[in-house]
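FIELD: query
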Amino acid sequence: MLILLTLEHLVEGGAIANIKNVILVILITYGGLIDEQIFESVMCLGVDGVVTFQGVRLAVTTLMRTQQTTFLIGIHCMAYRMNFFLQSLSSMPMVSKLKDLLQ
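FIELD: result
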C-alpha cells in the first residue's frame, strides 16, 4: 500500500507528534489496519531529510519505530539523495562542465 502524505492532511500543524498521528490515522482509515497489525508490520517510510522526519532523537521515524512498529525503515527521498550526490561531485571540473551542459 502506497499512501502519499500531503500538506492537506496536516491541517492541525506540522509538529512531529501530529504528523505521526496523521500517519496512523491514514494507516487505519485507508489501509484497514488495526493497532496490532501496525505494530507487527514491516513498514517503509520515505521522507525527505529534514530533522522533523529523520532526526536521531525525536523525529517521525523515531517515534513510529519506538511507539508503533519496531520494523520501520526510514528511506531518505531519492531525489534529495541524488541532489546531494551531484552537489558533492560538482567540485570536479568534468562534472561541473556536464552539469552546466545539462542545465
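FIELD: remark
The CA atoms of residues 78 and 98 lie 21 Å apart.
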